[in-house]
Amino acid sequence: VTATDKGTGKKQDIRITGASTLDKSDVDRMVKEAEKFASEDKKRRESVELKNQAETMVYQTEKQLKEFEGKVTPEIKMKVDSKLADLKSSLTSDDAEAVKAAMNALQQEVMAMGQAMYSQAGPNSGAGAQSGSSRGPDDVIDAEFSDK
């Protein structure tokens, strides 16, 4: 392969050659070893992915707790903190089932926290609520509309 810098006119070239010095028997042996360890590699990958999901859940939950501070009851916060601590402690072990169980338990408490927070907000606190309006529900507003 040859490359020329159009600005300076300098040329560089490189030659790539096949450097396989392995015998066919070595290649076959390596393929067999890869197949032999494929299931172990798959389990390891799944374990790492589960741990990453759990760590993401811990981060998101801690972020939500800070965001919702003062908006949820101390009882709900205590339950979420407890399940969060359980998940953190399960991450130190290699027990995938314990991590999954802790993640599910934390998810349930986080959902309950969200429901409690939004139920406390009340029906008139949404974005569509009109505040300070003196119109009643039967008042009519006259307007004209033209389509251009």
Automatic annotation (TrEMBL):
Biased composition regions of type Low complexity, renumbered to the chain: 119-135
InterPro entries (UniProt xref): HSP70_C_sf, HSP70_peptide-bd_sf, Hsp_70_fam
Entry-linked SUPFAM superfamilies: Heat shock protein 70kD (HSP70), C-terminal subdomain
Disordered: annotated segments: 117-148
Keywords, ordered alphabetically: ATP-binding, Nucleotide-binding, Stress response
GO molecular-function terms, A-Z: ATP binding; ATP-dependent protein folding chaperone
Biased composition (Acidic residues): 139-148
Name of the protein in its database record: Heat shock protein 70B
